[in-house]
Amino acid sequence: SQKIEQNSEALNIQEGKTATLTCNYTNYSPAYLQWYRQDPGRGPVFLLLIRENEKEKRKERLKVTFDTTLKQSLFHITASQPADSATYLCALVPSYNQGGKLIFGQGTELSVKP
Amino acid sequence: GAGVSQSPRYKVAKRGQDVALRCDPISGHVSLFWYQQALGQGPEFLTYFQNEAQLDKSGLPSDRFFAERPEGSVSTLKIQRTQQEDSAVYLCASSLEQGGYGYTFGSGTRLTVV
Q1: Residue A77: what are its φ and ψ, rounded to 5°?
Q2: Do A99 and B105 touch (CB under 8 A)?
Q3: From the CB of residue A45, how many other CB atoms can be counted at a distance below 10 Å?
Q4: Which terminus in chain A has less CB density within 10 A, N or C?
Q5: How far apart are the first and last CA of chain B?
Q6: Cα distance from A18 to chain B (closest Cα, Å)?
Q7: pLDDT number for residue B46
Q8: Reduced to 3 states, what is the DSSP secondary structure of residue A84?
Q9: What are B67-92's pLDDT values in tens digits?
Q10: Alpha carbon distance A90, A24 (integer Å)
Q11: What is the pLDDT of residue A28?
Q12: Rounded to an integer, what distance in angstroms lies between the CA atom of residue B60 and that of residue B1?
């Protein structure tokens, strides 16, 4: 069956460290993969998109990698801050002909302690 | 407007009541999506519009759910004869074009069926 999985356990790290979140998928050949941040009571906020032919994408303190062989994406936040505490969602578009429909993982909650 | 606007923000419905949830996407955004999010889970796809055409409604859980976007801008998600399992946050998202772009989500409507 098709699955997209993220660490179900919350990730707790110290301020200044690098947070690494994992997204694994099964039985998809995604055209691209996206990462979103979600705060309590709010909708997801788009962070980064990476295409199937890209291995890495960076934006300020954020870095995303995409390994289509391992069927995995890693999301890194360097020099983490308490303000980075939120739930992070990965989402993929199953294929180019599915109209951009996103399939989401269940999210990983990140807590950055001062 | 500057973002995706959803109303009402909260809705309490008695079981069996019909409800209508409204989404105002970003002006000019062609693609519009509805998602359902249960507590502690990622958003689950319901349906997708490109302009006024409903291109994918594969995620609608039953024929009690109906969505429309008659003029290609504002969209309404209607749930008839609500049941307790319909309690969730309903998120609307819009995107400039299909695929290849991040989505802008609204803050959602929290529906509680009692």
Answers
A1: -120, 115
A2: no
A3: 15
A4: N
A5: 33
A6: 24
A7: 97
A8: helix
A9: 999 999 999 999 999 999 999 999 99
A10: 9
A11: 87
A12: 28
